[in-house]
């Protein structure tokens, strides 16, 4: 039954399914895994079928619909054998033997070696994955985006290839514009604005510092009480807090950065000191985004300002700028010399279009990654 539900999502005549989730939101997709995630199934066998799609999505990234349809057919062909009184374990053993034989034949005789440096061949393969999906009309663009992104995050160490799409190839969706305007940045984009309106919004060849500590008054780990005996004590406490912020800012200013990204907050006083020194500050950046910026421009995330050294400063980016799309500001760190992380900017008419485009692009990214890790094809 589950295979029949998503069989119409397969092939060039595939249609999108419109699903309504429990909260009343609408999901439009023809991605097998996305559909099965929304379906509530009571039967245990049905649940294990959905689990197959989830595993396929995590391991391979594409082919979720195909794997369910194939599993459904395998179960359907096993039914006549059960009616003949054959024991299920015998059928399972035969299927397992068939699987081993199929894998061996595919690897030794059928599969074709592919040259991972031949970009045209890679585009052709990825295009076959994208062709039946919603972004089939923009297949050329989607293939270029997928291959560029995967090549950017590719890391080779001691002959071992590592391509971490999940962590270092982030897809950012900006409503508006058309899908043709989607592209891969040679750098990172985050949905943030500067902490002070007078800070610079465009810096060429910036020196970037990444922090994982707050630039505000130090708060106690647990509840702290302060006993004030004289009226001057309160003023002294405020002075100490200000001195602490001044010290933290001076430690940052000492390494002469142009931009400071921190995962925590930035107080108004810290913004003031940094502004006076001509430094732009961005606060409350996600840890994952901070790591991506570090990979792109060569900076190291520092936990305490007194540990900041000159080698922790990232100088690999060519441009820092803040742009406005609609009502929101976006920070761009681009034109990186050798970025090992990237952001894929997706544009589209509506949220539904963007969500489906992202799902399709994730499939294309995984296909491109699999090709580079194991460059073999089955004709």
Description:
45% of the residues lie in helices and 18% in strands. By secondary structure, it is of the alpha/beta class. Strand 4 and strand 5 (160-163) form a beta hairpin. The longest helix has 23 residues, at 88-110.
Q: What is the number of independent domains? A: 3
CATH class of the largest domain: Alpha Beta
Strand content: 15-25%
Strand order of the largest sheet: 8-15-14-9
Largest sheet: 4 strands, antiparallel
InterPro entries: Chap_CCT_gamma (IPR012719), Chaperone_TCP-1 (IPR017998), Chaperonin_TCP-1_CS (IPR002194), Cpn60/GroEL/TCP-1 (IPR002423), GroEL-like_apical_dom_sf (IPR027409), GROEL-like_equatorial_sf (IPR027413), TCP-1-like_intermed_sf (IPR027410)
Keywords: ATP-binding, Chaperone, Cytoplasm, Nucleotide-binding
GO molecular function: ATP binding; ATP hydrolysis activity; ATP-dependent protein folding chaperone; unfolded protein binding
Family: Belongs to the TCP-1 chaperonin family.
How would you summarize this macromolecular structure in one to three sentences?
The protein is α/β, with parallel strands linked by helices and 379 residues long. Helix content is 45%, strand content 18%.
């Amino acid at each position: 039954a589950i295979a029949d539900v998503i069989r119409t999502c397969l092939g060039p005549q595939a249609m999108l399914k419109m699903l309504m989730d429990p909260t009343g939101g609408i999901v439009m997709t023809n991605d097998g895994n996305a559909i099965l995630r929304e379906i509530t199934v009571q039967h245990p066998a049905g649940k294990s079928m959905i689990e197959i799609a989830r595993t396929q999505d995590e391991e391979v990234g594409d082919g979720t619909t195909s794997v369910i349809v194939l599993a459904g057919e395998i179960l359907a062909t096993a039914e006549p054998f059960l009616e003949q009184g054959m024991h299920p374990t015998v059928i399972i053993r035969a299927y397992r033997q068939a699987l081993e034989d199929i894998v061996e034949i595919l690897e030794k005789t059928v599969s074709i070696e592919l040259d991972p440096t031949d970009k045209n061949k890679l585009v052709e393969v990825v295009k076959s994955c994208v062709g039946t999906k919603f972004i089939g009309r923009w297949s050329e663009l989607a293939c270029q985006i997928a291959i560029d992104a995967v090549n950017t995050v590719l890391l080779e160490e001691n002959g071992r290839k590592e391509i971490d799409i999940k962590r270092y190839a982030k897809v950012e969706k900006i409503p508006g514009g058309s899908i043709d305007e989607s592209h891969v940045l040679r750098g990172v984009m985050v949905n943030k604005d500067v902490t002070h309106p007078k800070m610079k919004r465009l810096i060429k060849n910036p020196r970037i510092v990444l922090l994982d500590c707050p630039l505000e008054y130090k708060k106690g780990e647990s509840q702290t009480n302060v006993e004030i005996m004289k009226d001057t004590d309160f003023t002294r406490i405020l002075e100490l807090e200000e001195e602490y912020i001044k010290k933290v800012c001076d430690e940052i200013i000492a390494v002469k950065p142009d931009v400071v990204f921190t995962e925590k907050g930035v107080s108004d006083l810290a913004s003031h000191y940094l502004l006076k020194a001509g430094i732009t500050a961005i606060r409350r950046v996600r840890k994952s985004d901070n790591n991506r910026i570090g990979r792109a421009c060569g900076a190291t995330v520092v936990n305490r300002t007194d540990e900041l050294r000159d080698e922790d400063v990232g100088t690999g980016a060519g441009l820092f700028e803040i742009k406005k799309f609609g009502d929101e500001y976006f920070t761009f760190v681009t034109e990186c010399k050798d970025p090992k992380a990237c952001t894929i900017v997706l544009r589209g008419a509506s949220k539904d279009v963007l969500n489906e485009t992202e799902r399709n692009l994730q499939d294309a990214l995984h296909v491109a990654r699999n090709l580079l890790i194991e460059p073999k094809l089955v004709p």
